[in-house]
Every structure is written in C-alpha cells, then in structure tokens.
Design goal:
The protein is α/β, with parallel strands linked by helices. Helix content is about 35%, strand content about 15%. The model has no long low-confidence stretch (mean pLDDT about 90).
Length: about 160
C-alpha cells in the first residue's frame, strides 16, 4: 500500500458501459496501490448497460452499487478531489467539461462504444469483452507508473500516451 492516494474519474457521455467498466477495473486493480475510481457522464443514461454488468460479472468483478451518474457530481466542492480525469469515449473528449477542482491530469483514452454494437449476441459479447481487456491493459499501465518520481508534465504525457496504445 502506498502513502499517497489517487482519485480517478472515468468520463463518457452516457456513463453506461466503458466508464463504468473502467471504474470497476481501477478499483479492483489499483486499490492496494492507493487508487480510487469513479465514473460519470455528460448525459448519463440513468442505468448501466446490461452487457456491461454481465461482462463484469463473467470476469468475477463486482457490480453492486454501480449506477449511471452525471459528471456534475464530481465537480461540486464537496466531491473527492480528482488526480486524473480520463475520457473513454470520443463524444466526451470533444465536449466542454466542468472545471474540476484541483486541476487534475486529463487524458483521452477513447475507444469504440460496445453498446453501439448490434447483431448476433456473440458480436455484442465480444465487443464488451474487448472493451474490458483494453481498459484493463491501460489501467495496468497507469498504475504501474512510478508516480512519485514523475513530474506533472511527464505524468501528463504518460497518461495521454497510454490512451494511444
């Protein structure tokens, strides 16, 4: 366990799939390293996508208490101070974001929307599984960075580069 903690907000337009999956993964993979994750959307759907929950459950990851919520919850003065705000969909990257207290590092980790996949169930299942695998890799890269030894500029560059992989 580290002496320092890091709050991470994953942002997507609907907060129903990618950002929720990322929130769960970061809380599972990064908790012992001092990471705490949240997710929010600019236009939350109001509920998580059923396949997001199914994919998490199939991977033996917790789904209790997850909900689709507005990113406004995290821009309030009483909200946890974010160290990182990571967008995981193209729409949110182009939107005007709230002013986040504390000037967190920001990066775009855009990826295709698995909720937009139609067709056979196998195709939908594969899209959600691919999303989980990609987000897991990116989160593992972020939490493996030597955060205390990186200056703000280097850390910003590293976080952005992870989204390009």
């Amino acid at each position: 366990m580290t002496d320092r903690s890091y709050n991470v907000l994953f942002v997507c337009t609907g907060n129903s799939a990618r950002s929720i999956i990322a929130e769960v993964l970061m809380n599972e993979l990064g908790a012992k390293l001092g990471f705490r994750a949240y997710s929010g959307g600019s236009h939350p759907k109001g509920e998580g996508h059923p396949w997001a929950f199914r994919t998490l459950a199939n991977s033996k990851l917790p789904t209790a208490g997850l909900r689709s919520k507005s990113w406004d919850e995290f821009a309030r003065p009483e909200a946890p101070r974010m160290d990182f705000v990571l967008t995981v969909c193209d729409q949110a990257a182009g939107e005007v974001c709230p002013v986040w207290p504390g000037q967190p590092m920001t990066a775009h980790w855009g990826m295709p929307d698995p909720a937009a996949v139609t067709g056979p169930e196998e195709d939908v299942q594969r899209a959600f599984r691919d999303t989980l695998v990609t987000l897991r890799r990116r989160i593992e890269l972020l939490i493996s960075l030597p955060l205390p030894s990186l200056d703000r500029l280097a850390l910003q560059r590293e976080a952005r580069d992870i989204g390009k992989r």
